[in-house]
Amino acid sequence: NIPPHNLSEVIDALTYMIDSDGQWEFGEIYSRLPGPDFPTGGIILGRDGIIDAYRTGRGKITVRGRTSTEEGKRGKKTVVITEIPFMVNKTSLIETIVSCVQDKHIDGVADIRDESDRDGLRIVLELQREGDEELVLRQLYRRTQLQTTFGVINLALVNNHPVELPIADMLSHFLDHRREVVRRRTQYRLDKALARAHIVEGLVKALDIIDRVIALIRAAQTAQEAKEGLVSKLGFSETQAQAILDMRLQRLTGLEREKLETELASLFADIERYRTILGNRYALDGVIREELLEVKKKFGGPRRTEIIDNYEEVSIEDLIPENDIVVILSKDGYLRRKSLDEYAPQARGGKGRKGGGLQGEDEIALVAVTNTHKDIYLFTTSGRALAIRGHMIPESRTGKGKMISKLVPLDEGESVVSMYGRSLEGRSFIFFATRKGVSKRLPLSEISKLNRAGKRVLSLDEGDEIAQVRLTSGNDELLFMTANGQGLRVSEEEFRPMGRTARGVRGIRLVEGDTVISCEVVTSEKLALVVSEKGVAKRTCFGEFTPHHRGGRGVKAMNLGKKTGQLVGSWAVAEDEEIIVITAKGRMIRVAVSEIPKLSRTAMGTITVRLDEGDSVADVSVVSCEECVTEE
Questions:
Q1: Euclidean distance between CA atoms 527 and 473, whole angstroms
Q2: Distance between CA 137 and CA 147 in Å, rounded?
Q3: Which domain holds residue 504?
Q4: What is the mean pLDDT of the chain?
Q5: FRET partner for 386 with CA separation of 20 to 30 A, picked from 43, 205, 416, 623?
Q6: Claim: this prediction has a pTM higher than 0.85
Q7: Is residue 296 assigned to a domain?
Q8: What is the CATH number of the domain that holds 456?
Q9: CA 54 from centre of chain
Q10: pLDDT tens, residue by residue, 40-95
């Protein structure tokens, strides 16, 4: 599978190898022959594949079609394809693009037209008004033959044996072939010139003794007798004698004699030149060089395929818009995502909007806010941590989503009990708090390069499970919160770092029937948001929780009663942030943190989300400042 090259560049490389007299360098060849040149044009991405092919005889070259962006009708942008990769069929390419647009694999294309004519290829993709030409191009490169890979295999027969040849060897073998061709051709011409010179010498000699020649011929009874007489009596060879007998009388003129003498001189010069070529390899190479340059002058042309060094690889994420998303997990294990933009901020006390997707008796279990280009971290009942990219979670507005066990490998009976949607960068430890009050601090390096396969991060007691996961710096303070409304503030330095298989130590002492619901990092610039299962919420200053040693019972964090129900959790929130509240029945409401009142530690709080009969708050996720969308 040998790619085509530019004729002028190939000849430049060949003449360099001739001039270098076998002392060529790869870099010098490459500077003259930088890569394949396809008749359909296009763009070669990078030089590594070319260099591999040139050095070893094998390589992969990525070829991309040439495109441009134009202004279309009514201000719409169009993507115009003017060159396609080598061996790609135009009709097949258009059919593939149409199929990808129909299947939603390429977004933002409104119309496709083939405007190719005698002037050249032209495929026009008219974009929708909101279409992103960069995203469309990336999707075209990834999903269609607009970007292809040409596998180079420089396989040739050398002495009847198949060999994969580096470029220098290919050129050397070609030069050897040309030397053999020119050598045989020159030998043929030499033999022909010698034979003709011999005849012309005989004709000139015959003209010098023309009277004797004529007399001998007239005296002969037959042509054969005349021929034998010319050989035996006048010293001509048989070839010369036959040529004399075949000579027309007009050759006896003086002008014809001059022509013969001129021809003979020319033949002697040619014979000398042919002998020089055959006897001197530099003269032979000189002939090859001249002929190559003549071919270049007559047939050479500019390069059609551009080679670029700086380009961006097209990854899966390049094809997916970077959007903030809400990830929702139901108690039955169905995972889905929705765009954060679907939930405009509402005033405190609203009912929110239906999230849909629940079937039968299923309820919402967890919610987290992340990004399509970021990982969301999942923690399971067996103490494992897994990661999945946001865009890999199925998007669903009303559907139930996809069973989480089909997205990440979960063991039988294992389920996800906590989700974390923030970046791990800039922190040193990951802190775990379990329902039964056990806590553990794990160096973040222990779960570096976390993937869908997961890693064990905590050994859990029977019947216990992870309640909260938070990232810490190493000198933070943490606020434990229980379902019965107790809060304990503890320095993380009281928890020594442990390995992935360690159980942990007691973080907070619980009364019978109580469980840990959250563990939040204390931040001086933020307040503690506390939310109950009946939608009551408040913000309290972290300073109202006095630091204690680990293992204490804590102090009251909220005045609970029938109107509030038990606590769902606590979160550190800033004044300009927002929260997403999701209920067990699937309703979601987005509320500005500033709408939630600041109250004392022992106060009850106010209604943040108004619930239907039998519904309750399932989870809350904080929308950070940079993710918030300002409403006009």
A1: 19
A2: 10
A3: 320-627
A4: 88
A5: 623
A6: no
A7: no
A8: 2.120.10.90
A9: 23
A10: 999 999 899 999 999 999 999 999 999 998 887 777 889 999 999 999 999 999 99
